[in-house]
Amino acid sequence: MNPQTLSLRALLFLGLWHTGRRSLASTSELKDPPKKIAVVGAGIGGTAAAFYLRQEFGPGVKIDVFEPEVVGGRLATVKMGDYEYETGGSVIHPLNLHMKHFIEKLGIPPRKDVPSKMAIFDGKELTFEESDWFIINFLRLLWRYGFSFLRMQMWVESILDKFMRIYQYQQYGYSFTTVERLLHAMGGDGFLTIMNQTLEETMIGEGFSQVFLNEIVAPITRVNYGQSVRINGFVGAVSLAGAESGLWAVDGGNKRVCSGLLYHSKSELIPAKVTSVSVKVRPSKTGPTTSYYEVNYADESGSAHALYDIVVIATPLHQGKSDITFSGFSPPIPSHYPGRYHQTVTTLVHGMLNMSYLGTSEHASEFTVSDILTTDTKGSMINSLSSIDPVHIPADYKRPPASKTKVWKVFSPQPLSQEQLKEMFLSWDSVSETPWLAYPSYRPPHRRTPPFILHNRLYYLNALEWAASAMEMSAISARNVALLAHHRWHSQTGRIDQEDLHTRLRGEL
Ligand SMILES: Cc1cc2nc3c(=O)[nH]c(=O)nc-3n(C[C@H](O)[C@H](O)[C@H](O)COP(=O)(O)OP(=O)(O)OC[C@H]3O[C@@H](n4cnc5c(N)ncnc54)[C@H](O)[C@@H]3O)c2cc1C
Ligand SMILES: *[C@@H]1O[C@H](CO)[C@@H](O)[C@H](O)[C@H]1NC(C)=O
Ligand SMILES: *[C@@H]1O[C@H](CO)[C@@H](O)[C@H](O)[C@H]1NC(C)=O
Question: Does pTM surpass 0.85?
C-alpha cells in the first residue's frame, strides 16, 4: 500500500468523505425538481436508491417504493427456536463504506463480533483447519503454498485500493452511464480486463499455481458465489476480499438497514408488484412535450397505475427474478436480459453434526470451526457448511462446540434430500430451506452488460451485479443511479462519464 492511498483511507475512516466539498450549483438556477419518483423493489438497492434520491432531489419530491414481498429482498432472516438467523446476504466488508454510513445514519449498531474459524473439506477429509494461533496458520500455509497466500492478499489489496476511488467520485457527485465506464473510472483498463476474463485466467496470469487455485481460491468462490474459479476476475477479487478479517453484520439482521432507509427517506412503501411500465407523452403548457412513465401494479385487491417523472428499477431483469413488461419504448426494453441467476439453496438445520461426515477423528466437544468451505470435487453436494450465530448476539454468548445441538447453515446448488441430511447430521429437530436465485451465473467474457439507463429517465440499478453481486455493490449502484437521475434531470453533463477522475481529483484531497 503506498502512502497516498493510506492517507486517502485514513480520511475515509475519519468520516470526512461524506461531509464532502461538493460544490452544488445553487438550486435557484435549476429547473423545477421532479414531482414523483418510483422505485421498483425494496431490497438494499431500492431502499438505498430512495435514500440517495431524497438526498439529491430534496424534500419536495414524492418517492414511492414498490415491493410485493418482505422489505429486504435477498437480505432475509428466519426464526429457529428462540433466535433469528440470516438466510441471504450475511457478511459485510470493513471497507464497505456505504453500508457503514447507513448504519451510522440510522443509529443501528453492528452485531457483536464472535470470532470465526475456517476449515476446508475436500469431500473426504479436512485438508486445512485454522488454528487459534496466527503463527501456526501462517506456517502451515507457508509450508504448503509458499508466499502465494501473502501475494494473494496483496493482489486483493491492490484491487481494493482502486475500488475505494468510487467513494471519492461519488462524494464529489460524479456518475457513470454504464457499468464499463464505472469500472474504468475505478481501475482503468485493468478492471475491464479482469471483469471480462475468468478469475482462474487472471490469477494464473498473476503467477498463482493451479493447486493454490483449487485448494484455497475455489473454496472461497464456492462459499461466496456458489461457483467455481471460472467466475469473472472482478467478482473473484470481491469474493477473496470477503475472506479477509474484520467482516461484520448488522445487529438484529441486515434487512433492518432496508426498512431504516425507507423510513429515513420518507418514501411511501406500496405493497404491490409492478407489472408494467409504459411511456406516455403529453403536451405541456410551456411548449415542448414531456414524457411520463405510467407504472402499473397489482396486489390482492386488484390493479392500479400511477404516473412518475423518474423510475428506478431495483430488481434484476432476468428470468425467474421479475417479470415486468415495458411498453411504448423505442428501441424496445426487454423484460429479461440475457444470462441467468445461479441457484443457491440455504438450509438451516438445528441439529447435531455427524463428525465422521467430515472424516475427522477430532472430538465434537473440541470442534469449534465455524466455516467449513469445500473444494470443487465431483459429486460434492454442498458448497459450504457453517455454524451460525443469531442476528442478535445474547449477552455472554459463546459459540457452542459441535457436540451441542446448534444451528448449521448449508449452501448447496440443489435442495438437500433426507438421505443427504442424514449423512451430515446425527439428529435434528428443525430444518428451514430457502432456495435463492442468488447472484448472476458469471460466465466471462461478456458480450455486453445491461445498461444503467433504460430510457431518458428510466434507470436500472441491478446492471452492476454483473460485475459483482454484494450489498455494497447495490448501494454503490443506488448512489450512481440517483446522481445520474439528478444530473440528467438538470442537464448537468459535467458530472457524467468524466475521464481521468483519479488524476483530476488527486489534488483535491
Ligand atoms: C444466499 C446469499 C448469500 C449472500 N451473501 C452475501 C454476503 O455475505 N455479503 C454481501 O454483501 N452480499 C451477499 N449476497 C448478495 C446480496 O444479498 C445481494 O447482492 C443484495 O442483497 C441485492 O440487493 P438488491 O436490492 O439489489 O436486490 P434484491 O434484494 O433482490 O431486491 C429486489 C427486490 O425487488 C422485488 N421485486 C421483484 N420484482 C418486483 C416487481 N415486479 N415489483 C416490485 N418489486 C419487485 C423483490 O421482491 C426484491 O425484494 C448474498 C446473496 C444470497 C442469495
Ligand atoms: C456418519 O457419517 C459416516 C460417514 O459418512 C457414516 O458412515 C455414518 O453412518 C454416519 N453416522 C450416522 C449415525 O448417521
Ligand atoms: C469482452 O470480451 C468479448 C469477447 O472477447 C469482447 O467482444 C468484448 O468487447 C469485451 N468487453 C470488454 C468490456 O472488454
Answer: yes
